[in-house]
Amino acid sequence: MSEPILVLENIHKSYSTSVETIHVLTGTNLEVLRGDRIIITGPSGSGKSTLLHIAGLLDLPEDGATFLRGQKIEKKSDAELSDLRAKHVGFVFQFHHLLPDFSIQDNVALPLIIRGEHPRKARMMALETLSRLGVEKLFYKRPSEISGGEQQRVAIARAVAGAPDLLLLDEPTGNLDRENTLQVMEILKKLNIELGITVIMVSHNLNLIPYFEKHYTLFEGKLYPG
Where are the alpha helices (DSSP H) in the chain? Predict the structure, then answer.
């Protein structure tokens, strides 16, 4: 049996406004095994993004515990959390957030350079990853010169170029047509099977469930098997 790479135990998270407190997560539990390919669905506003941010160490719960690679996150300093994210977690969002003044190659290489890789090695890693995802023809273009589907594939390349253990995706196909959505799904399956990257995606699109091995629904602050 595979070892857990991520464990969320009894996670609680709420947000306060001037008139009320909104309880988003109310005792959420999730065990993610190394090599899993998981989709989490639920309506808009159900807390999917909040859950993903906690899973990716971008946010901390008010109560409960998060374990990444067996390490309890709530005991880590900000610097330690940043280091864990840089080494072990890749993110892809609905909007690609590519830097408009940089080439595609440099967009993918920049996070590696920030992580400490030599610029020459980082650019080689970027080229290799873009080639693996079938967008090598885009190396020297800028984001404005490529399509929306290509931009999202580049965003995935940027997220996985550093070989993270865990790839987290927040509605990555929300702005894509059916053809580009299917291409992204095939890329995620390839990364999961060939590179062993654990994938967790949140989406409200129920049509994407067949592309994943495990499905959970987030409802009233808790996760339920799909």
Answer: 48-55, 78-88, 104-115, 119-132, 148-160, 178-195
Residue 18 CB burial class (10 angstroms; 0-12, 13-18, ≥19): exposed
Q: What is the CATH number of the domain that holds 103?
A: 3.40.50.300
Domain range for 167 is 4-225
pTM: 0.92
Each residue of 2-15: pLDDT tens digit?
Answer: 779 999 999 999 98
pLDDT of residue 94: 76
pLDDT per residue as tens digits for the range 133-143: 888 788 889 99
Overall size of the chain counted in residues: 226
Find tokens 């499905």 and name the residue.
215
User: Is residue 173's pLDDT more than 80?
Assistant: yes
Neighbour count for residue 16 (Cβ, 10 Å): 8
Strand partners, 33: 4
Say what the pLDDT of residue 1 is: 58
Is the separation of the CB atoms in 64 and 10 below 8 Å?
yes
Dist. CA 94–CA 151, nearest whole Å? 11
Q: What long-range pairs does 187-192 form, CB within 8 A, spacing at least 24?
A: 187/133, 187/153, 187/156, 188/37, 188/156, 189/37, 191/156, 191/160, 191/167, 192/35, 192/37
Tokens of 92: 């892809």
Number of domains the chain contains: 1
